[in-house]
Design goal:
2 copies of one chain form a homodimer.
Chain A lengths: L4 E4 L18 E6 L15 E7 L9 E2 L8 E2 L12 E12 L2 E5 L7 E8 L2 H4 L19
Antiparallel strand pairs in A: 1-2, 1-8, 2-7, 3-6, 3-8, 4-5, 6-7
Amino acid sequence: MKPIGIIHSPYKHRREAHSQTNRSEEISQIEVFEEFKEGLKDIEEFSHIVVIYWFHKSQGYSLLVKTPWDDTLHGLFATRSPDRPCPLGLTIAELVAREKNILTVKGLDALDGTPLLDIKPYVVAIDARSAVKAGWFEGKLGKRRG
Amino acid sequence: MKPIGIIHSPYKHRREAHSQTNRSEEISQIEVFEEFKEGLKDIEEFSHIVVIYWFHKSQGYSLLVKTPWDDTLHGLFATRSPDRPCPLGLTIAELVAREKNILTVKGLDALDGTPLLDIKPYVVAIDARSAVKAGWFEGKLGKRRG
């Protein structure tokens, strides 16, 4: 598992990065390493991209976790906690611009220096679902605890 | 990077697995290893889950690829090809049932025996986007070549 790039963002520490459920308007730069640049052909035609990255500041995990949204212990895989057995981060980011191997994106809440693992085009027919039951998240978004 | 489970599916060979853009109704079973079972608490409350897995049959990649959708070479990162530098697969699957550490899902087009890396709850506010520009995919879905 070899990174294909690195993420440059305004978030230097974990406490600064927004929870994904407070969608951010911050701008980040995704630097794709030169050796993979050719693989970006046509990416600028997409308005949104799937960004998969490595939560490199993650240190271990618990299988039951409390989130910022309530006081209940939830199973780790029913949460978006960055502390996971395979600490893979996933964000659908808005692609604002591309200049050579640098993608400027909005709404990617990864820490500065995060290793980039993959980029995929976001396609509604593949990735979007409606009529979704959001389990314990229902009604909690925007109502962060404390 | 250690798998947290294994996917049991009707797809034994790559040629049998549907392209993700022909959304399948096939049923697969996700077996989460016993040691991670506790992390599934509350997952059954969600109708859809994000499944991240390892394209274990992937052997190398090209940075420019042809897809089943047209005769044009596209940049790899503007396609959903399984042959990638980090061969990470991503599917939003419908969660049909949970029995202990086995999740029954619909629409997960991974090969039988695929290593499972992560499960996250699918939450519209986090994962879904509308008003999306789908680049070269526009108008091509459902019109597979040959």
